[in-house]
Write a structure and sequence with these properties.
The longest helix has 8 residues. A hairpin with a 5-residue loop joins β2 and β3. Strands 1-2-3 form a three-stranded antiparallel beta sheet, with no helix packed on it. Helices cover about 15% and strands about 55% of the residues. The protein is mainly β. The chain has one domain. It is elongated.
């Protein structure tokens, strides 16, 4: 069972945009042009053992 994000992600923040994103060339190749940003936030995550923790999430 993979990790599962439960509920809302709070305190969203941009941590990289445009050419600062290391995987920008792959994103452009696979998904095309767009306003690409790397974000982070805090949310509740259910672990494979069933326990729930608060964690910083990057996407």
């Amino acid at each position: 069972m993979p990790l599962e994000i439960i509920g809302e992600i709070e305190h969203e923040e941009v941590i990289a945009s445009g050419r600062s994103i290391r995987e920008l060339s792959r994103l452009l190749k696979v998904y095309g042009e767009g306003r690409w940003r790397k974000l982070k936030g805090v949310g509740s995550v259910r672990l494979p053992n069933g326990s729930v923790i608060r964690a910083e999430i990057h996407w």
